[in-house]
Amino acid sequence: MSKPKTLQDLFHDTLKDIYFAEKKILSALPKMAKAAQSNELRAAFEKHQEETEGQIERLESVFEAIEARPQGKTCDAIMGILDEGKEIMTEYKGAPALDAGLLAAAQAVEHYEISRYGTLITWADELGLSDAVKLLKETLDEEKKTDQALTALAKSVVNAEAEAA
């Protein structure tokens, strides 16, 4: 009989999930930046690409803290969200609503990440992993700021341009 899975196991599996997700996001951001028509949106994607590199490094530190090798585990949720972004890039290429669609796809990614990091922080705290909590909180704060910046960009520029066309 196999031993029952623990919160530590669940934390590790979810850490692998978000690690995979961050790596996929890192490879998608340059494509989204290239597809963006608005300079402001392109700049937001480029800024988040740099942040994502740091987030991956922090995740690697969390793996180290739990004495595990950094590795990803296929995350179907992020694959689906990124596929939606690809679909928008294809179906709305050159269209006035492209940037609004790209921004919405980016926010879906942010909301997924915010959810995952919030959960990981709670579990890390429960498991007494104070170093992991600190690292994960730093990333969660960045994700929330990115989401707020995207919302502001949608309201101030992107949605108005899509509607005006």
Q: Which characteristics define this entry?
A:
5 helices; elongated; 165 residues; mainly alpha; 0% strand
What can you tell me about this protein's structure?
- The chain has 165 residues and is mainly α.
- The protein is 82% helix and 0% strand.
- Helix 1 packs parallel to helix 3 and helix 1 runs antiparallel to helix 4 (98-126).
- The radius of gyration is 17 Å and the shape is elongated.
- The relative contact order is 0.16.
Q: Give the overall shape.
A: elongated
Radius of gyration: 17 Å
Question: SSE string, helix = H, strand = E?
Answer: HHHHH
Strand content: under 5%
| Sheet having the most strands | none
* Overall average residue pLDDT: 93
Question: Uncertain runs with pLDDT below 50, 5 residues or more?
Answer: none
Number of E strands:
0
Question: Could you say which structural class the secondary elements and strand pairing correspond to?
Answer: mainly alpha
The number of helical segments is: 5
Bin the helical content. over 70%
Span of the ends, CA to CA:
63 Å
What's the short story on this structure?
By secondary structure, the chain is mainly α. Helix content is 82%, strand content 0%.
Topology:
Layout: H1 7-35, H2 39-65, H3 76-91, H4 98-126, H5 130-164
Helix pairs in contact: 1-2, 1-3, 1-4, 2-5, 3-4, 4-5
